[in-house]
Amino acid sequence: MEIGGLTGFALNLDDGRVQVVAEGQRENCHRLLEWLRSDDTPGRVDGVTEIWDTPRGGYEGFAIR
Q: What is the pLDDT of residues 1-15, one digit of tens each?
């Protein structure tokens, strides 16, 4: 999936979870969430928890850490 219009990062955590921080237009964020809940992801996704917050900025592009 192209992360079009979003900035932020995806980070593998030590406990096996993946933290994703994404900023951009709400529609693009919803599209990312739909993709994460689909069967078309590159890895296994057992669940998605959403936390919406005020954008903080400071990201250039979307990084996999």
A: 567 899 999 999 999
Two tokens, residue 7: 């900035």
Instruction: Give the three-state DSSP class for 39.
Output: coil
pTM for the whole thing?
Answer: 0.83
d(CA 53, CA 50): 10
Angle at 43 between CA 42 and CA 49, to 5 degrees: 110
Q: Parallel, antiparallel, or unpaired: how do β-strands 18-23 and 7-12 relate?
A: antiparallel
Q: What does the alpha-carbon distance between residue 37 and residue 59 come to, in Å, rounded to a whole number?
A: 24
